[in-house]
Amino acid sequence: MTAPGPLDAPVLAAVDIGTNSVHMVVARVSANGRVEILEREKEMVRLGRSGGDMKELSADAIDRGVAALRRCKSVADAHGAELAAVATSAVREAENRRDFLDRAYDEAGVSVEVISGFEEARLIHLGVLQSLPLYDERVLLCDIGGGSTEVLLGREGSVLESRSFRLGAIRLTERYLSKDTVKPKHIARCRQHAQAMFAPFALEVGRTGFDTVVGASGTIETVVAMVLADRGEGGGARTHNGERIRAEEITAAVERLVETPDIAERAKLPGVDAKRADILLGGAIILEQFVQTFGVDEIVFSDYALREGVLLDQARRRAGATLHHLRDLRRQSVEHLMELTDEHPDHSHEIARISLRLFDEMTPLLGLDADGPQGVGEARELLEAGALLCNVGVFISHSGHHKHSYYVVRNSEHLAGFTDREVELIAQLTRYHRKSAPKTKHVEWAALRRADRELVRRLAAVLRFAIGLDRSHTAPIEDVAVDTDGDAVRVTLTPRDGASVELEAHSAELRRGLLEDVIGRPVEVDIA
User: Fold this and answer.
1) Minimal CA–CA distance to 40: which of 311, 313, 240?
2) What global pTM score does this model have?
3) Buried (b) or exposed (e) across 424-453, using 16+ Cβ within 10 A?
């Protein structure tokens, strides 16, 4: 679900025609480049199959590709969307690509632009910057397709260095791993080939350095899913965006694929997408050799890639959109969702301010670790997001709006830069900002990991208390101070000039129950 966006913003559609599959995204793109996803389509067509140069598209592959584009065009037309389509490795290399391009235009009504490897990498980078808060960082990006792998070093939307390698999951599978019996020597040759391709560019990147490494593609997402399944995490996640996996975990996933040579059995491995089981080992070896050759310790996954980059580029060309919102992606996306759905955003801002002030004063009492899934820094950011979004369900109905807020946050496409786990935790905070405290009979809360259940409980306690401190919706409190020296925890309110805070003090006292349970001490409210 997405909350209503600006109705005057254009609806655009972008299609990425790859070697393995055709992806489409339909979205409303605002003047500052913010993307509100309306619909997605994905279809595996296997346009290209070759261990070397993909010199020709087969007749049946062209048929599949054109049929997929017809369906994409129908979806775009249903939304009244202006459509842009780009083709990559398989079409780029094919000597008969004109046959495909002409049929796409004549039979599907789609004008396809064949883009270079450099342009492909640039657009992937634009897409990634919409899903992860990395605008100011030096990002090393790897996108593994069916026919090629794009590696880019970029910063602030600009490409510093880029290479497109004829090294893809299908290409490597056809060249080394399509034998009836794949032997250790085939795996070794596959690894050597990938390493030899990457090595020269790795030396260049090594001289410049990088801050964060991002992976984008179906192959990398499947490896991420395998790693999360091995950790016992990620089951049922709506997205793996923002998940981080380590180099040794990638190696372990590759070894698991090597030890499962039968394609049908490989498709049953936890986390594996059965539709790509036949080409997954080749793609996973590319990822393994990428992290080893470039000296990567950890990789973060982005579920935005080429198609989202095409969308943003399309909008910028069309209306001069900017990338400024990417500088503080997570905060901006929270603010945007709040502005779309909250009837009293000033009240939500005040709740967030007081929540953070209480959090800072009470951190030692909340039992949060400096590191780990309940670390102080992450907890503070989640609390702020939950405070800003706790009332987004009011536009559905005031009665039970805490439950509506959970639904809106959990299913919104607007919270860019957050992992699926973080979105769930923010949604849970909005769920428990009023009424019932978390209980094991609540299915969503009970499904959390133990540490996350406790984190939600502690942050919700602070949020509920803070909400009482703006009961009049007039922001009458200048500051709060917390004294922990006595048996009770004393919270002292400093009013703004001339303001009465009696109502706020009374309301906070009514909401202190969960906070007292969490810190194990009585809470008293005073007025300075």
Assistant:
1) 311
2) 0.79
3) bbbbbbbbbbbeeebeeeeeebeebeeebb
